[in-house]
DNA sequence: TTATTTACGTTATTTTCTTACATAATATAA
DNA sequence: TTATATTATGTAAGAAAATAACGTAAATAA
């Protein structure tokens, strides 16, 4: 609705504009792309107004002047075009569906990057630092995310495990106590089994961190929730990108964790890294 | 093809530039956003070169002049990719390391998006379509990727499994035959055990698809290799992004697969999707 | 109506960009 | 090596673009 797209802003403002401003707006809206590369004189002539009128028009829309306006207009056009262009069609071929899938993933990441609450991230890092042990829970696709998380966090010299089996989860939840952190990953946040398990762990005084969608039942009953608001994929052909976002958020948390531990901890990480060297073929042969 | 990002184009061209052009490039790359809104005089001063040098720089990159260059630069910046200093420093806090990690992931995705060979992607989809069964192999972090791949590909009504156990891999490889596809995921492509396993499968006439780095031993001995050239993470604090890229490439392959199967196949996917509904809490309560 | 505000254009000025040309640096051939 | 060609870069002029200052016209309110 209230997108920051300049074209939409102009369209919305159209009824409130005066004569010459309206003329300018019409010319711009008729061919915004041309407007971005034309001079103030050209545009003024096209709209049959004076150059300062065009300039005033620009300032009206929070630009410092005509060049600044063109810049903002150009930016609006790019994001708009990409957005429209992002769905995979049945008749797409490799050259078209490949960049589309990359673009939609990139777009979702950029969205979350700008929306994610740094305060919440910080609190989650706090809780992880305080944890005596961490369990990563996830079912289906989120199971892979949980597995990846284990692979990241075991490096911190801390009892860490991942689980994708509801019975196992249930048992662990029932033995959970203060100091245990259950890190629960779920795209929907509405899986009954998961909710059950979290409830049990909660009752035992464990900390629950949720990585899920905002407003979900899981988010509601967790100690703290990292909200990821990635639109549901309505398109049949389009893969789910939320798990990618989840992985990147876990990267962020792991980084926060490492930083909090301080530089004395780096040699430990280095040791783990080097432990894999003997399993690899040498580069020079 | 996909229009390459101007920033990447400049970065790539950097080694071939002459003195003053290099100066200009460095100033632009240091803060591209500032460059889009500064005058040619300001930029020339910052780079300690003359104004015409800046102008010539712009023309070198297929712009008609400085304003046109700024426009193109601005457009490049919109695509969600930010080019700030992307390294995490020990004294970074949440508000700085969070966007950095997102940005570096986004940047790597954009790079691969523009570099990946559509021909190879297409051939890999061909091979997957022809497969009688698919094994996804991966160790460590790549194990999670393999697990995710299984979760995607089992939907295609095809015997699919993932394995992160070298003994299991070895046994499966030894029984592999024509029609079997071994999809091997490895960031380095130099893990001895994996190379061994692939050799065995190869000798049995199976098809080996590698998702690994170009020029690696694994790429060399595979039937076909999807090259992912993501720079090694030299920074201690920066997480590995290659696995994210791998996941997106698997998304691309799954999409290619779905499209190749045609629209008759969609109801089957829908059925799988709906099978999960009973496990979820209703939205309205 | 007249006073007042607002809208708009003309002209002048400033800023920005580009062209033409000259000089310096570098590479190449003798 | 030196002479010559080539390329790189800067200076200065001028063209183009954008803005500011000002004045007149139109609209509105009293």
Greatest contact between two chains: A-B, 77 and 79 residues
Strand order of the largest sheet of chain A: 2-1-3-4-5
What's the count of strands of chain A?
5
Q: What percent of residues of chain A are in strands? A: 5-15%
Q: In terms of quaternary structure, what is this?
A: homodimer
Tell me the distance between the termini of chain A: 60 Å
The CATH superfamily of the largest domain in chain A bears the name Glucose-6-phosphate isomerase like protein, domain 1
CATH class of the largest domain in chain A: Alpha Beta
How many structural domains of chain A? Answer: 2
Sheet having the most strands of chain A: 5 strands, parallel
Order of helices and strands of chain A: HHHHHHHHEHEHEHEHEHH
Number of helical regions of chain A: 14
Q: Which CATH architecture of the largest domain in chain A would you pick? A: 3-Layer(aba) Sandwich
Structural class of chain A, please?
alpha/beta
Shape of chain A: elongated
Low-confidence stretches of chain A: 80-85
CATH topology of the largest domain in chain A: Rossmann fold
Question: What this model shows, in words?
Answer:
The structure is a homodimer of 285-residue chains. Chain A is of the alpha/beta class. Chain A folds into two domains: 6-84, Arc Repressor Mutant, subunit A (Orthogonal Bundle); 117-274, Glucose-6-phosphate isomerase like protein, domain 1 (Rossmann fold, 3-Layer(aba) Sandwich), CATH 3.40.50.10490. Chain A is 58% helix and 9% strand. The first copy, chain A, has 14 helices and five strands. Chain A has a five-stranded parallel beta sheet, sandwiched between helices. In chain A, helix 12 (217-221) links the parallel strand 4 (207-212) and strand 5. In chain A, helix 7 packs across helix 13 (242-261) and helix 10 runs parallel beside helix 11. The first copy, chain A, starts with 5 loop residues before the first helix and ends in an 11-residue tail after the last helix. Chain A binds a DNA duplex (30 and 30 nucleotides) through residues 18-21, 39-41, 49-56, 65-67.
